[in-house]
Each structure stands twice: as structure tokens, then as C-alpha cells.
Automatic annotation (TrEMBL):
Its main location: secreted. Residues 1-26 form the signal peptide. It is found in: Secreted, Cell wall. GO terms for molecular function: polygalacturonase activity. Keywords: Cell wall, Cell wall biogenesis/degradation, Glycosidase, Hydrolase, Secreted, Signal. Belongs to the glycosyl hydrolase 28 family. This is Polygalacturonase.
Amino acid sequence: MKLSGCNFHGVIVIVFVMLSISSTSAMTNFNVLNFGANPIGRTDSTDSFLKAWNAACSTADSTFIYVPKGRYLVGSLAFKGQCKSPQIIIRIDGTIVAPSDYGVLRKWENWVSFERVSGVSIIGQGAFDAKGPSLWACKASSSNSCPLGTTTLRFTNSNNITINGLTSLNSQMFHIAINGCQNVQIQGVKIIAASDSPNTDGIHVQLSTNVEIFNSSIKTGDDCISIGPGTKNLWIEQVTCGPGHGISIGSLAKDLEEEGVQNVTVKKTIFSGTQNGLRIKSWARPSSGFVQGVRFIDSVMRNVQNPIVIDQNYCPHSENCPGQVSGIKIKDIRYENIRGTSSTPIAIKFDCSPKNPCTEISLRNVNLTYLDKDAQSFCCNVVGKVFDLVRPNSCL
């Protein structure tokens, strides 16, 4: 083990049950069509969806809300908790469509949101179509009149949540956000947005405990999965990413007082043409935050710009951070069985804080090449060990 300078050298088991309509006979059923929803998508169905939710929420029995095939035009949907029903299953077989004019949603942070709910499952083969391209075009024009956009689906301060089998298309901002939640299971989702779509993170997790993401495909213009402060016990497995920015812990150190990230496992992932593969990043400024107990296992890189990267000198546009160093403490990070190709010469980059060096970093069975040649590694302020075969030659 050593502290390097800046050098170059060449389980959690989950069972998801897809409930059919017939298997919910013991539950109280609510069909959005019975509340006036229009499946042709020509008239606004927002009130119909809210009425169906309120009916289910106020029922003492377990309840089932059904959205049949069709296209349903809705504005902002805010589903509030404190429900009498111990379990609410929402099966979506149709497509929920946002207004074509992105300005309609500009005063809302979220398009479809759940707050303080418990025992809610969203399942089915349906989709959310957020109509993001027109807003992306506005942002690309550098117009100051563009709104930030809305997150497609957000759960806040909620428990025992399941999301299974849905598709999220063209979100204005984040596709799925999990904030302040416990016991969340996400499986079999498809997330699709253009490679140049701004801030369209696939799944964002923060301030949440016991979150599991399995068997999903994420294609976006930003992070495939972004992991924010206060995330604890996160398991990610069998996820494919690309295009996009890869799986990122951070950005961290946005605030001086910030909760840490701990006990994260990322396993059996594939990255294709992404900007990054497995990334940890923090702003170069003081913070009480930390990252520890992270396991990156069995990842395949296909033409990835930065397959393995820790960046503690993140300072976009050189604003609010020049001359400072990151206070984030990063330790106990393991990379095992990582293989594939880098699209840049540096396949492994550990650019850590001079004040808080990265410690207990380990590499085992890593094989990354660049254009069928040996790649390079870069290390700055990092302590670690190498086990078995590691290519490129590690500078640890």
C-alpha cells in the first residue's frame, strides 16, 4: 500500500410478481375510464386520474387502479399519501402523455409525483411520454426563457415502493427520482432519451435506504443512474447503460453539511458508448460528506471514454470552486472483474483530493484496453492495492 503522487502508468434477492387483472379480484378495483379518463388522448384526463387515486387512497382495503391501453393526456399529477389503503397497485398498460407545450408544466418540479405514500406499486407494460424534445431544443438555443423542466416520476418520503416493467420516454429532466425513501424495488424498466438531451438522468437516488435496481435498460443524455448524498444500502444489478454518462456517485460536496454515501453494490452492468463507466465525483470544495463501502463487480465496457474514474476536482465552468479542494472522504472502494475497451488512452483515473486522499482503493481482475493497445492509468493522492491481473498497469 502506498500514497501515490500524480502518475501515469502505461445479495439481495427480490421476487417481483406481475399481477394480472384477474389476480386482483380480492382487491377493490378502480378503472380510470370509470372516472372519465379519455384513452384517445384528445382531452385532459388529469382530474380523472386524481379522482381514481383519491378513491383508492380513501378505501380501507387493498386497492387496484387500472389504466387500460390507450393514450392519456395529463398535466401535473401529485398523489398524496396518508392513505387508508395498506396497498395500492397501479397497473399501467396505456401511455401517459404530457402536454406538447412544455410551458404547461413549467411551474411544477415533477410531472407525476408520489409523496408520503406506503405500499404503492406501479406495474405494467405501459409508458410515460414526457414530450421532452421541444424543451431540449429550447435549451440548445441558449434562450433564457426556457424552464428547467420537470422530473417524470418522483417518489418522496415514501416506503415499500415497487416500479416494475414500465417505459419512460423523453423526460424533460430526470426520468425517475427516489428521494427520502425506504425499501424501493425497481425492475425491468426501460428509459429512453436522446444522447444530447440535457439533465435527463435515468434513475436518481438520494437520502434513501434499501433501494434495489435490477434488469433495466437506460439510454439517456446524462447519468444512467446518479447516486446522491444520503444513499445507503443501494444494490444495482444487470443494468445496461448507453448512451449517457454512466453510473455516477455524485456530484457530491454541493453543500458544506452533507450526508454520506455508503454500502453501494453495482454488479453485472454493461456500458456502451458512454462518457463514463463507474464514476465517483465531487466538487472541489469543503464538505462533511463521504463515500465508503462501494463494490463495482462484473462490468463490461464497450468504447467508454472513462471506464473507471474518481474525480474529486469537479469544477464545471470554474464557478464556486477554483483554488479549493474537496472535503469528501472516499475509502473502501473495490473494482472487481472489470473488462472491455476505453475510447480514450486513460482507462483508469483516480484524481483525488490532496487534503482527503482516496484510501482503501482496490483493483482485482481488471482488463481494459484502448484501440487494441495498452491503455494508461492516472493516479493522484490515492492509496490502494492491486490483486491478480490488472490492465492497464496500475499506478496504485
